[in-house]
Amino acid sequence: MAELDTSGGGKKGGKVRSKKQSTRVDLTAMVDLAFLLITFFMMTTTLSKPKAMDLAMPDKDKKEENTLDVAASRTMTILLGTNNQVMWYIGEPGKTPPSKDNFGKNGLRKTLIENKESVRNKTGKTMFVIIKPSDKSVYKNMVDVLDEMAITNIDSYGIVDISPVEIDLLKRDGLY
Amino acid sequence: MPRVKVARKSTAIDMTAMCDVAFLLLTFFILTAKPRVEDPVPVDVPGSIKEIPIPDDNLAIITVGQNKAFFSVEGNDVRRSLLQQMGELYGVQFTPEEYAKFEVLPIFGVPVRSLKQFLAMDADQKKNYEQPGIPRDSVSNELFNWIRESRKAAKALHNQELRVSIKGDSKEEYPVIKEVIDILQDQEVNKFSLITTLRGASK
Questions:
Q1: Selected residues 45-64 of chain B with any CB under 8 Å from a CB in chain A
Q2: Nearest residue on chain B to A33, judged by CA atoms?
Q3: Is B135 helix (H, G, I), strand (E, B) or coil?
Q4: What is the pLDDT along chain A (176 residues), one digit of tens a residue?
Q5: Nearest to B42 by CA among B64, B71, B14
Q6: Are B195 and B166 in contact (CB under 8 A)?
Q7: Total count of domains within chain B
Q8: A24 CB-near residues (< 8 Å, 6+ apart)
Q9: Interatomic CA distance for residues B74 and B106, integer angstroms
Q10: B112 inside domain
C-alpha cells in the first residue's frame, strides 16, 4: 500500500538508469508513538462523568391557597443529626415517640420501606416524607437521604427547616 | 537426501493500516479530551444512584467546600458578558486583557474587588493562591449577583434558562449548603441539581 511500483519496465537497451529507491518507510516507530499517545489520552479522559441529582425545593413565599394539607398519619419526618445518625417519627412531633436509626440497607432503607407499606395499608395513600436536616448534619447525609428516596421509590418528599421542638428531641437522644 | 528448506519469510509487516487506525483513534481522543478542572479546594462528591448525566453547556456550578463558595459557568460568551455586567454592578472597569483572561477562567472564588488582582496572576500563582471564596454574607452577597447575572447573560445570549448545580463536599456542614440553597431560592431558582458520583445501589 505504501509502496509504489518500483519495478521498472523490461530491460531495454543499455541505457543507464538511476537506481530507483524503495519508498517504503518503516512505520513501526510511528505506530509505537501513536499507540503511546492513544493510551495517554484514554487514561486521562474522565471515564465516569459526574452525575446530577435534581432537587426541587418548595417555593419560599408560599401562597396559602395553593398549599394542600397532608394528613399527619401519612407523613414521616426524618431528622438528620450528628455523626450520620437519623431520627424519625410518623405524624406530629411530640405525639409519637421518635426512633433512632442509621443509614444503610438495614437502617433507614428498611424503615422507609416498612413505613411506606404500613401507610399504604392504613390510609390507602402514599407516604409523604419530610426531611429536616439539623445544623449538625453534613451535606452527605442530605444526599444520602435523597438517595434513599430514589431507591425506595418515594416520590413525595420535601426538605424543610428544622423546628426547635425537633432540635430538643435530637438533643435529648444525643444526636445534636 | 535433499534437505527441506524452510522458506524464510520477511518479518516486516505492513504497518500502514495499523498506523491509520492508531492515528484515527488518537485524533478522536484528542478532540474529545476535555481538560479536567481542578477544584480550588478538595471536594469529595457524595455518591448517589441517580444516573442523570450533567449537561456540557448552559450550566453553572457552585462548588462548596471548606465553608467557601466557588463559581463556574460554561461558555466563553456567557463569561464575557457576565464579567461586563458584574463590572457595571460593582463599578469596576476591566481591560480587554482581563476579559480575555476571564473568558477562559474555569472556576474562581474571589471577591469582585480582588478579581483584577486574581486575573493578573499566572497559572502557577493561581494554583498556589488560596482563594477566599465568593462572599455570600448579607453585607455583600456577591454570590447572589454572580448567579443572577449569569442567568441573565445565558438568557440573553442563548435564550435558555441556566441550569444551576451545587457541587458540595461530603463533609460540608448543612448550614453552609443551606445558605447556598437560600441564595438560589431568593432568586426563585427552586429547581436545581446536586452533583453526585455514581455508586452501586447496594451499599
A1: 45-54, 64
A2: B22
A3: coil
A4: 455 555 555 555 566 777 777 777 788 888 889 889 888 888 877 666 677 788 887 776 665 555 566 677 778 888 888 888 888 888 777 677 777 777 777 778 888 888 888 888 887 778 888 888 888 888 888 888 888 888 888 888 888 888 887 888 778 777 76
A5: B64
A6: yes
A7: 1
A8: A2, A3
A9: 8
A10: yes
At a CB cut-off of 8 Å and minimum separation 6, what does A132 contact?
A: A77, A78, A79, A80, A159, A160, A161, A162, A163, A166
CATH 3.30.300 assigned to domain A71-172? The reply is: no
User: Position B164: which residue type?
Assistant: V
Does B19 map to a domain?
no
Residue with grid cell 401519612, as numbered in its chain: A74
Q: What is the pLDDT of residue A69?
A: 67
Are A52 and B197 a contacting pair at CB < 8 A?
A: no
Query: How far out from the chain centre does Cα A143 lie?
Result: 8
* 3-class SS of residue B165: strand
Torsion A103-B166-A161-A123 (CA) sign: negative
What's the maximum distance between 2 C-alpha atoms anywhere in chain A? 116
pLDDT of residue B201: 43
> Looking at chain B, how many residues does it have?
203
pLDDT attached to residue A47: 60
Question: What gap in Å lies between CA B61 and CA B194, rounded to an integer?
Answer: 9
| Whole-angstrom distance, CA of residue A84 vs CA of residue A106 | 14
Q: Output the pLDDT for position A61.
A: 65
CA A126 to chain centre: 24
Cell readout for B120 is 493578573
B154 and B160 in contact (C-beta within 8 Å)?
Answer: yes
pLDDT in tens, B67-89: 888 888 888 888 888 888 888 88
Considering the domain boundaries, does residue B114 fall inside one?
yes
In chain B, what residues touch A136 (CB-CB under 8 Å)?
173-174
Query: Shortest CA distance to A131 belongs to which of A61, A76, A56?
Result: A76
Q: Is A19 on the interface with B (CB under 8 A)?
A: no
- Range of the structural domain that residue B74 is part of: 47-198
The answer to whether residues B58 and B163 touch, using CB atoms and an 8 Å cutoff, is: yes
A51 contacts B195? CB cut-off 8 A? yes
The answer to whether the complex's ipTM is over 0.90 is no
Domain boundaries of chain A, sorted by first residue = 71-172
